[in-house]
Write a structure and sequence with these properties.
- The protein is mainly alpha-helical.
- It has 10 helices and 4 strands; from the N terminus they run H-H-H-H-H-E-E-E-E-H-H-H-H-H.
- The protein has a two-stranded antiparallel sheet. Strands 3-4 form a two-stranded antiparallel sheet.
- The protein is elongated and about 65 Å long.
Length: 260
């Protein structure tokens, strides 16, 4: 495992060296943003598949309602009928989870890389890089300290800028999700294998528009390098979902915006 992290650290370091002529001391931060964009670009086919699946499930809603009415008292028959319907229409019930699951390893790699003082038994040279006055291995609490200059110091200003970006994206997501949910005559709740709404999802759907604001907490507690990954990925997700779901304002509301 140590060799794997060493290879990943070397990759990020090499990418930072390539970007150094353009971004100078911010080359490592630029490398993280570029790496995140590459991850999201690689995951984009899964996001498109997730959008197609969501649209297909919306299209199949009347047939699912008929199956529920026909087999409502027989969960096993209901589950089998749903599986047959999904297979016939080539719709995967798990497609909506795939983009988030695919991104998690990249986030944890970035988190681990900038949380360790040593990688492979050698000093982690990436910790010497910074974004303006904020070291990539530090957290918001470090920026708030006297050494960090406080809220309006150099490092604090970097975090304030990130918070403004996250708040702006979260507000966009909040307003769009509320509009989508209001446009849906009957909000579509996620269903289990038996075709019945998952218990507790009704309450979760009510708070879903606020979920994007949880990214503010993530940015505040993880190393700055991981925060850059989160901010870049969240911004990408908002733009991606806008374009993928722009032709289905009601159905797109059922899937949360990915924060990673």
């Amino acid at each position: 495992m140590s060799a794997f992290f060493s290879a990943f650290a070397h990759l990020v370091g090499q990418l930072a060296d390539l970007l150094q002529p353009l971004f100078h001391t911010g080359s490592a931060a630029a490398a993280i943003i570029l790496f995140t964009a590459c991850v999201r670009l690689a995951v984009h086919p899964l996001s498109r598949a997730s959008a197609r699946g969501q649209k297909a499930r919306t299209r199949l809603a009347p047939q699912i309602a008929e199956l529920r009415q026909k087999h409502g008292k027989n969960p096993e028959r209901m589950q089998k009928a749903l599986m047959e319907l999904h297979a016939r229409e080539k719709v995967s019930p798990l497609s909506g989870c795939l983009p988030s699951l695919a991104q998690m390893p990249a986030f944890f790699l970035m988190y681990h890389l900038f949380s360790q003082r040593e990688i492979g038994g050698r000093p982690n040279e990436l910790l010497s890089h910074s974004l303006f006055a904020a070291p990539l291995g530090d957290r918001w609490t470090d920026a708030l300290s006297a050494a960090g200059g406080g809220v309006f110091g150099g490092a604090g200003a970097v975090y304030l800028a990130l918070f403004v970006i996250v708040a702006g994206v979260a507000t966009f997501n909040f307003r769009r999700t509320r509009i989508q949910m209001a446009a849906a005559p009957t909000p579509a709740l996620p269903e289990g294998p038996d075709g019945q709404p998952v218990p507790g999802m009704g309450a979760m759907m009510k708070v879903m528009p606020l979920m994007s604001f949880a990214t503010l907490f993530t940015v505040a507690v993880v190393p700055l390098a991981a925060a850059l990954y989160v901010v870049t990925s969240t911004t990408w997700s908002a733009a991606e979902r806008y374009f993928l779901y722009r032709d289905m304002p009601a159905a797109g509301a059922a899937a949360p915006v990915t924060a990673l």
